[in-house]
Amino acid sequence: MGSVGVSLDQPGKEVPWQVKVAQKQQQCRDAIPAAWLLPPSILESLVFPLDKTPNRLLDLDIPRKSGLLSDREIKITEDYTVVELLAKLASGEFSSLEVTTAFAKRAAIAQQLTSCLTEVFFDQALARAKYLDQCRSEGKLVGPLHGLPVSIKDSFQVVGTEACIGYVSFLGKTSDANSPLVDTLLGLGAVLYVKTNIPQTLMTADSDNNVFGRTLNPHNTALNAGGSSGGEGALIAFRGSPLGVGTDVGGSIRIPALCCGTYGFKPTSSRIPYGGQANPGLAGMKPIVASAGPLANDFEALQIFSEAVIDSTPALLDSTVLDVPWRRLDNDTPARLRLGVLPADPLYPLHPPVKRALAEACKKLQAAGHELIELNVSECRVADVTELAGHLFTLAPAAAKAKIDASGEPVVPSVLRMSGVPQLGDQTLTSSLADLDSLHKLAALTVKRQEVAEDWRKIWVDNKLDAVISPAAQNTAVAHDTYSWVPYTVLENLLDYPACVIPFGKASKQQDGDAMKIPPGQGGPDYDPELQDGAPCSIQVFTSRMRDEECLRAARVVDGCLNKESSS
């Protein structure tokens, strides 16, 4: 760890939070090998400050121009899906050492430009890659992910690293045991090499904290990368990882996916190991149960991850996991799906590019022979769910605040923006809770939650739906600290539905040229056609609870229809 001139070992003196952060940040800088630092010519081509200026990093092709990656390393990181990489690793055409080195180099570049990483352990990763290559030379593949680099969100524990999740008060606490999913991935043959950035409290869509700074969107550094798995979204979009793992309690896999133009899958809770993570709130308080799941640049990677992890019987390592095997669906993929279309809620209107992307997706799906059923706004209850989720999330607000206050660090702007409950609509629920204590409030919210679940049961049955397509958000990526409530993702968390985000199209100032300011009485960020030009758009596909296999099957059909070059 680099020195900043103040010792942390001064008896009787509380070290200022700024000093702790400075030392951690120096440690992070030192973790990047000197040979992998960007040359001055690259930095001189950018306009600073990066978060205030729309530097379009992906268009600039910095990894190639930097000279830090060989042509073969560029090809490894850019030209292959996860399926193709695994095949080449299994055949020996690629070694795990060279694939891990290529993605580690690219991750190092991504970090210098977007602040997407937290913990970096390249040396250990390269040593593991060599071990896996030796295993392969002896005729043994460790598992279905043999030799593949996999990035993970900062909240997962990896022995010998920290999991401070953006809290200064958590700095200096080294993990002495792996999270069960970490051990699961190692058992499957993966190579873990980096952990990725998150928001303070893990409860906003802007991955910004006082320890690691703000994660920037590689499509446009003036736009947010999403949260809370924003580091994963940025890293994967930059192709610094072929496959990443995030978590999702209100959209925290799907929002980074939609902001950064990647695929993302939130499974039903407890199907993928979630235990043993650093906790941002009150231990044991889980009014909405979070899920762990994958992000990637190709759809098939979502299935590979989900199937491999669930097939490994993770309940042997994690008591929070449902011991339910991955189901092989008997029938072939249906040629014709019956798809519900989730309408925009009037309180959370869609931005023009999102509205256009959804309309174009529906048109393509209908042209391909799929049957689309427009669902009823009042029956879907998107705004009601958002208010209900807001109350559930704020049942114990003091826990996260105490972790911030413990170090004296300030609350970051995005957390301040998202404090409280949405103040929209008739607020009948909010007023009915005003005089209740916490226990009776939880009971009342649970009753309301079951009412919503019953309404949605009727929607599935009455319409005989295979899946529902919807916007993943009312917006694309937006200016930093302006992302608002998450109505179109928290719906699936409250109902515990599996949901998949599929990239489809981009915002265009030519096609979506009219600015949009959200008026009083409605929620969401404003739309700036100039700033958001080129931001990725996406479509969300979801099914009912525990139908993860059907969700991915339907999403594959939708992806094949919308992005034919991605279909298989």
TrEMBL record:
Binding site for substrate: L202, S228, V249, G250, G251, S252
Keywords: Hydrolase
Matching Pfam families: Amidase
UniProt keyword Hydrolase present: yes
Region annotated Disordered, chain positions: 510-531
EC primary class: hydrolase
Catalytic residues (positions): K153 (charge relay system), S228 (charge relay system), S252 (acyl-ester intermediate)
PROSITE patterns: AMIDASES
Protein name: amidase
